[in-house]
Amino acid sequence: MKIKSTAMFGVLSVLAACSGGSDGGDNPVAEYASDSDRAARLVAETSASSSTGVASMPTRGRAEYDGIVGMAFGGQPASLSEAEMIGEVDMNANFATNRITGELDDFNTRSGERIRGELRMANGRINGSGFSSDISGQLSGGSRSPGNVSGNISGDFLGENAASITGRGSATSDGGRLGLSIVGRRDRD
């Protein structure tokens, strides 16, 4: 009977490990891979798009943009595929007031570690067909987490009716200098 109990405990332990951590989340390795694939698709979709013409920018209403952010220590990641950490972008644009808000969160590392916390956008502005925002927050967990982060991002609206976004940023953190790269598209829900 003891052998059966030990075997059952082993099976349950494996199943528990596969179902995620104590926070109920998915596997960070799988999430990193999924976000990397999504980033590649978004980059392919937006690579042929040019900046939205200033005369074609929406002047009223709001839009939500969902996308991917990649970060790397030491400076700009040359591409999202080279990011050490990948997370999600949720940016809201108010075209009537020329303001943006949002957050960067749900980060996972290339080595399979979950990074907890978020970076919030503050003082976000739309200027012509571009945007800029301060970012700050705390990111913890993992063997090389950024800790306290403060910096900025800037980018462009792309395509007809500001259908997509792309941008870059830089920040200082407790773990060192960070470079950021973002890409996203307008949520059509």
Uncertain regions spanning at least 5 consecutive residues? 1-24
Count of helical regions: 2
Number of strands: 8
- Relative helix content: 10-25%
- Numbering strands along the chain, what is their spatial order in the largest sheet? 1-2-3-4-5-6-7-8
Q: Would you state the CATH class? A: Mainly Beta
| Major sheet details | 8 strands, antiparallel, barrel
Helix vs. strand class: alpha+beta
CATH 2nd-level architecture: Beta Barrel
Overall body shape? globular
Number of domains: 1
* First-residue to last-residue Cα separation: 55 Å
Radius of gyration: 19 Å
β-sheet strand percentage: over 45%
CATH topology, what is it called? Porin
Helix-strand string: HHEEEEEEEE
Estimate the mean pLDDT confidence: 85
Layout of strands and helices, then pairs:
Elements: H1 2-18, H2 28-46, E1 62-73, E2 85-94, E3 99-109, E4 114-127, E5 130-140, E6 147-158, E7 164-173, E8 178-186
Antiparallel strand pairs: 1-2, 1-8, 2-3, 3-4, 4-5, 5-6, 6-7, 7-8
Structure description:
The chain has two helices and eight strands. The chain is an alpha+beta fold. The chain has a single domain, classed as Porin, CATH 2.40.160.90. The N terminus is likely disordered. The relative contact order is 0.19.
What keywords describe this structure?
Porin; OMP/PagP_B-barrel; alpha+beta; 189 residues; Transferrin-binding protein B C-lobe/N-lobe beta-barrel domain-containing protein; 19% helix; TbpB_B_D; eight-stranded antiparallel barrel
